[in-house]
């Protein structure tokens, strides 16, 4: 987005500073779309309640950070995280800004602990995916669902990455996926296992010849499958697999397949006697993390091997893999 059009979105006295902040983040390679929407809400808040505020004062920060009725603590955290980043940017620019303290994190906010599927549960889940039936409205669903869930677990991909794949991104000969402009603006190549490749080939063969720019997992209308549609399939697979779901916010979540991929891969390397210090950066690159820190936070080790594997990692890196309550 160009500077003039971006500038028209902000009208409070702090608006120009927010525009510079967004431009800075994008210059650093961040997409910064959802954050723009959050900053626009903050801008409208300033216009209504602090129309003369030309700096990020402690009064403004406290007013914006107050917990709202029926607001989830995680939403409050998201709101204040963006403002904290803005404050840090302003300070680095030599401007006065009140830095939100970490105490704004609500006392009842606790991070979700990823649900790590057992290998037996994964086998049941994928078997249920294979039993998906086609329908009149979605004749390729029975091929799309197994392929999608094999990618989510077998490659640790994010759902958005899977649904964004285009025909040209899937090399059915070499078995390599090309992920372009994924999270953090990163591109990467992802080799897939033969079993996953076979399901991709089955889907592609049924879909027929298509232009390279076409969505690989095209819905019956030709566009992407909606994430909510895949989530409905996920809940069905859980039921058919006998895996209980704890309700909203309790999991297991669809995204936990990615966590499970990371943990199972680390377990396998451990049991094979691999050098975990050398393998962890490989896993980080494969999963498309911004840095090794992202991989460290992703891993939730199983209790059966935790003590020894934690010791081996600590010997090489120090406290690199957080405890469960640090995730």
List the helices and strands and how they pair.
Blueprint (H helix, E strand, L loop, with lengths): L2 H5 L7 H13 L6 H16 L8 H8 L7 H20 L26 H12 L10 H14 L4 H6 L5 E2 L4 E4 L8 E4 L2 H14 L19 H15 L14 H16 L4 H12 L4 H7 L7 H12 L10
Antiparallel strand pairs: 1-2, 2-3
Helix pairs in contact: 6-7, 6-10, 7-9, 11-12, 12-13
Structure description:
By secondary structure, the chain is mostly helical. The protein folds into three domains: 3-104; 119-241, Intergrase catalytic core (hpI Integrase, Chain A, Orthogonal Bundle), CATH 1.10.443; 256-326. It has 14 helices and three strands. It has helices at 3-7, 15-27, 34-49, 58-65, 73-92, 119-130, 141-154, 159-164, 194-207, 227-241, 256-271, 276-287, 292-298, 306-317; strands at 170-171, 176-179, 188-191. A three-stranded antiparallel sheet has the order 1-2-3. Helix 6 runs antiparallel to helix 7 and helix 12 crosses helix 13. The chain is elongated and about 60 Å long. The two termini are 35 Å apart. The model is unreliable at 106-110 and 317-327 (pLDDT under 50).
